[in-house]
């Protein structure tokens, strides 16, 4: 097969790295890619939101299989667009259509979906600018803290956990009346705050069947000890020590199966990844959110643990034949530490020379925001590199990832020193 991956981050580099190992992969392309994907595939200078250019590249490169990495093109309907193009109706695509992508594209849709199909989640109500006063009144009667979510895509910044009533009122007004997130905040979901411990479960669906991939836990805040502002993710661990067999069976029975049954009942033929963000509350799973794609940096710990042919899995998802393939998962622990630019998640500079990548041994540096120029690798984003290590214990995987994170150099480098340490100390 000729395979095209859409995206430019660490998730897409991990996809490319895994697919390049498959004998089923004849030619591999990434649009637009980064300096890391260029090591294992051919980068195409195309925006993944430029649907006509993507369609032209598919024809030009005789692409058989497309894997859509980021959420934005999925929510905007790239799958529907490509299937409607002349000569592309039979194209294999891993990624949901626009209806399916609403699971991520609209917080209100996903909450209503969960309620319809009795999927455990936090209590919530949705408000618009026309019901702003009603929303403010609702806040006054609500327990604190409280979660305020912009309905649409807001680049990971549309969720605020308000510790005080005043903070919650400001957030609601900013989103609805102040249009802080534009169209994404035209509806706002006000949600109960759940106390527990977070993890993510990933499902690969083919329209009817599914495979559950390795679970992961990520670390969102910039600073050690979960301090400071939220980021796109500062690291991840897989497997997750508190997700025992009994708990994961509850996730499958109470969340995964009713989610997929609900999609089918609504006439959504969902072929792609479903990222289920969960809170474990007193041994019970509650859904915080759905994403219509793999997480980042979770992909960088999930894929290294998958021992099966990844191209075969992708083809089966697109063809509706996942029941015919097995998924083999390594028992090793994977830990990734994200190296980020100085100033991130606020303003940061790019174009910094990255050195000492060649010194890394027995770890994988997945490129998240890099650029190849004149034989050098430069920083080209807030999140720069995901340093992934595997080992036979969590302690050893943490040590290897952290040692490698110290080794790689660029001006302004930041990273968390405590990725996975809470799980080493964890007791139920």
UniProtKB/TrEMBL annotation:
Its EC number is 6.3.4.13. Residues 111-319 form the ATP-grasp domain. InterPro entries: ATP-grasp, ATP_grasp_subdomain_1, PreATP-grasp_dom_sf, PRibGlycinamid_synth_ATP-grasp, PRibGlycinamide_synth, PRibGlycinamide_synth_C-dom, PRibGlycinamide_synth_C_sf, PRibGlycinamide_synth_N. One of its GO terms (biological process) is purine nucleobase biosynthetic process. Keywords: ATP-binding, Ligase, Nucleotide-binding, Purine biosynthesis. Pathway: Purine metabolism; IMP biosynthesis via de novo pathway; N(1)-(5-phospho-D-ribosyl)glycinamide from 5-phospho-alpha-D-ribose 1-diphosphate: step 2/2. Signal peptide: none annotated. It catalyses: 5-phospho-beta-D-ribosylamine + glycine + ATP = N(1)-(5-phospho-beta-D-ribosyl)glycinamide + ADP + phosphate + H(+). SMART domains: GARS_A, GARS_C. One of its GO terms (molecular function) is ATP binding. Belongs to the GARS family. NCBIfam families: purD (TIGR00877). This is Phosphoribosylamine--glycine ligase. It comes from Spirosoma radiotolerans.
């Amino acid at each position: 097969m000729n395979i095209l991956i859409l995206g430019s981050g660490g998730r897409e580099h991990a996809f490319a790295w895994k697919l390049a190992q498959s004998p089923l992969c004849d030619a591999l392309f990434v649009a637009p890619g980064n300096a890391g994907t260029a090591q294992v595939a051919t980068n195409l200078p195309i925006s993944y939101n430029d649907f006509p250019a993507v369609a032209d590249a598919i024809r030009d490169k005789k692409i058989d299989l497309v894997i859509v990495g980021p959420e934005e093109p999925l929510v905007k309907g790239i799958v529907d667009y490509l299937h409607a193009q002349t000569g592309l109706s039979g194209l294999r695509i891993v990624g949901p259509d626009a209806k399916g992508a609403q699971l991520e594209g609209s917080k209100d849709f996903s909450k209503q979906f969960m309620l319809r199909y009795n999927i455990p989640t936090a209590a919530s109500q949705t408000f618009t600018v026309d019901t702003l006063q009603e929303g403010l009144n609702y806040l006054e009667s609500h327990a604190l803290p409280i979660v305020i979510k912009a309905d649409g895509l807001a680049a990971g910044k549309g969720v605020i956990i308000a510790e005080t009533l005043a903070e919650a009122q400001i957030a609601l007004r900013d989103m609805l009346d102040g249009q802080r997130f534009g169209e994404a905040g035209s509806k706002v979901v006000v949600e109960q705050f759940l106390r527990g411990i977070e993890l993510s479960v990933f499902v690969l669906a083919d329209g009817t069947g599914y495979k559950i991939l390795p679970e992961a836990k990520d670390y969102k805040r910039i600073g050690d000890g979960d301090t400071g502002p939220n980021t796109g993710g500062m690291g991840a661990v897989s497997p997750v020590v508190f997700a025992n067999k009994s708990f994961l069976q509850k996730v499958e029975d109470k969340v995964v199966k009713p989610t997929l049954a609900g999609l089918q009942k609504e006439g959504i033929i969902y072929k792609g990844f479903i990222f289920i963000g969960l809170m474990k509350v007193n041994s019970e799973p509650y859904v915080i959110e759905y994403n219509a794609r793999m997480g980042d940096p979770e992909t960088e710990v999930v894929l290294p643990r998958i021992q099966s042919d990844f191209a075969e899995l992708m083809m089966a998802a697109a063809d509706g034949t996942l029941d015919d393939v097995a998924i083999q998962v390594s028992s090793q622990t994977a830990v990734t530490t994200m190296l980020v630019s100085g100033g991130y998640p606020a303003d940061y500079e790019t174009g910094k020379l990255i050195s000492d990548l060649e010194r890394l041994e027995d770890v994988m540096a997945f490129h998240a925001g890099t650029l190849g120029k004149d034989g050098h690798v430069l920083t080209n984003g807030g999140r720069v590199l995901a340093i992934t290590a595997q080992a036979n214990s969590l302690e050893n995987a943490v040590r290897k990832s952290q040692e490698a994170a110290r080794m790689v150099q660029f001006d302004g480098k930041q990273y968390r020193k405590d990725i996975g340490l809470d799980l080493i100390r964890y007791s139920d």
